[in-house]
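Interim report, section 4.2 (structural modelling).
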Amino acid sequence: MSPDLPKLPSAISNALELTLISQGAEAQIYFSHEHPFIPSPLPAGTITSTISSPSAGYILKYRPPKPYRHSALDAQLTKHRTLSEARILYKLFLAGIRVPSFIAVDPRQGLIWMENIDGPSLKKWIWMLEAEIEGQHGEGDDDEAMTRQESIKPLLLSVGSEIAKLHFLDIVHGDLTTSNILLRESSRTGAESGADSPKRIVPEPVIIDFGLAQQSTLPEDKAVDLYVLERAFISTHPVHSEAYVKWVLEGYVAGFGRGKKIAVFKVKEIMRKLDAVRLRGRKRSMVG
Amino acid sequence: MPSKQQLPAIDRPTVALGLEGSANKLGVGIIRHFARRKAGPRPPAEILANIRHTYITPPGEGFLPRDTAKHHRTFVVKLVKDALKTSGLTPDDIDCVCFTQGPGMGAPLQSVAIAARTISMMWDKPLVGVNHCVGHIEMGREITGANNPVVLYVSGGNTQVIAYSHQRYRIFGETLDMAVGNCLDRFARTLQISNDPSPGYNIELLAKKGKHYVELPYTVKGMDVSMSGILAYIDGVANDISSGNPRYAEDGEIITKEDLCFSLQETIFAMLVEITERAMAHVGSQQVLIVGGVGCNQRLQDMMAIMARDRAGAVYATDERFCIDNGIMIAHAGLLAYETGFRTSLDDSVCTQRFRTDEVLIAWRDD
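Predicted structure of the assembly:
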């Protein structure tokens, strides 16, 4: 079960302590406690404006060479894709969208450094909450729906609005799933939640993995992005997916362009396309 | 070699005649399944006859539906007779008549369907309509013993990445425009390469002599691929070269048509391997099975093997007897359906050019 994994360039693996945390079809994800070029511990206040939590560590995304393809083609693809992902990540970061902040890129070697987001994925978080709610309430309990609404809805609204911000900048993600949205503790929670407030602290969603992202002005592409997320909800959280998707879309429509006139027009068009994409059923079913 | 794949039990051997004619190959095959129990190893199917006749067009020309249908009508009776003779069976020994119901070219499909209906009524045997893609997949599984692979189905008319789930072969990725074999065939026409035995094979031979890699468009979109832009681009380069505008490689040498064949293969096969790898990662499979005419290509098989090795997996491929369209695969897939009680009534035996792989209920698998 352990194939000969393509190795990181030794200059990097010798200098830093890296742990492989995920291996996809195209890239490997490594975790590091240390910043790639700023000595740790970080001098106080050095890059706090860009790195939200230095203690969370850092992520190295590595696209290893693919020995099956011609070396010239391989070099071209690695460079192009790494650069494109880094550009999009940086653009989104500058626009204030919650994504891992970008640190460095080496397109020829297929390396991108970014901050680590320390928190569960939306998928795990929903699973945890659902289990918790089911534990508290009996079967078919009326309070159950109420609790679910109170605890999950605010988060999904903000997930929707975060995706809307992304789309408003004409970036489509290409692979929106509940595992590609991570949650971290909100930076504002301290002030907002009163001392004895029973309300749960709502974490803030951070969208990750822009490996398949691209620039697009087409409403169709944005609708497909939303449809892919909808399918992900249906396949991973089947029981209440309808409500979840409704909340995400509610947040999406409200968050799109924040009421600018042109945005209202655009978001209507996207919703119309989404209905069309749903009807079309997107030719294939993505059941794993 | 007994297979570990589980199939529903049958208490006596069954025999099927299969007719295939969805494109320019006319194939007739006869297969026998032995009696088997639900659990435990089972004997492999016995191939009693596998006969094929291909309609070959002159260089620079493709096969047109009308002419191809005429070819099939001309040869189908002879091929069925030959198949019976090879197998040493009589019509009484046969349980069912299987035919390709789609997808494929309309006119050739129809002429073979007519032959199948006629035989079925003459011999008083039930008809079984088979999805061509499912035929390829089941034959590949039977021959290679691959249990639950991700399937790359690449031929002149189809390009799909398929994985099994809940009694359907589901399509994870596919071409957004033309099939990979079609792209190769049409480039062969541009170069005026012979269509005998197949244009793709002749491109493969030329590609082996190619040295210089020419950069071509590379279009992978998620799990889908697109071929049309690549063909238009490389056609342009080829036309430039043939009209006396040579292109030069980095080392100063002139780009030849061998180089173009080499570059075309390198590019489109890399795309196919990439989407296959993505599907394997998605469903967590270690096996990959290549089926369809393009699946014979040695370079594609090699590239896939390198990818599979790096994932600690294995690649399964068959040779031209089973990769290229044939009657035996239709007989095999049809017989599997027949054993679960499936029949196609005369009224429902209309063929269709559009018949998606995931429309078929795979009743003989329950994993």
